[in-house]
Fold:
Amino acid sequence: MARVALVTGGTRGIGAAIAKALKAQGCEVAATYGGNDEAAKAFTDETGIKTYKWSVGDYDACKDGIAEVEADLGPVDILVNNAGITRDAPFHKMSPQQWQEVIDTNLTGVFNMTHNLWGGMRKRKFGRVINISSINGQKGQFGQANYSAAKAGDLGFTKALAQEGARAGITVNAICPGYIATDMVMAVPEKVRESIIGQIPVGRLGEAEEIARTVVFLASDDAGFVTGSTMTVNGGQYLT
Ligand code: NDP
Structure:
């Protein structure tokens, strides 16, 4: 039977590449998004992958949304917590709202999604949880106290939960992408982009498909002994 995969924020950027790659592996895939209906429709038209709209920051919405996905596709075996936002500002100018929005989506969202799927994975004795963190959760980044805190939190969550899932056949891993050529990064002025590329030993931005291929490995049955790990996929920009 095909595995069922749910990718949050799976309609654009890195998440879209992940959803497509999992589908190419034979998974039944659901992609969620937060609000951009146009992008979601274009994604479904291109890929045939069904999309679902709710905010990962809302626990009850996650519960109801997951029930809808499972009614359509069956129990979720693979969860990719990819949805994420930035609300950058130097700390002295950062508002409590900018802090809270990023924590709610990038950290609490990971709890909300995983918590609502955990019981089923435990019962079925199989699960793959893959959390998309960031290089900036590892090294910190000026103007991103909120984002770096949330993404570092995702790494602690991954390590703790891996220990709880191990005997139940559930692996929990994190991926820390470096700078990837998504809309977000391509929107920064060319000069800034060039300076970022100058800090990457491989000499280029990453491709969303390179993150997707890492997810495909971690999601596979072959990766059953890999749990609690942090996969660094950053072109050598930051070595832990
Ligand atoms: P994008 O901005 O291109 O896409 C984000 C996706 O997340 C969209 O589908 C968006 O939905 C969805 N989303 C945002 N907020 C919510 C929410 N509250 N509930 C549900 N879905 C939501 O992001 P990227 O592809 O650039 O990034 C993907 C992940 O990778 C993020 O976690 C990011 O932090 C991380 N990352 C990205 C890097 C990069 O260089 N791009 C580097 C390191 C990490 P909608 O379309 O409706 O807005």
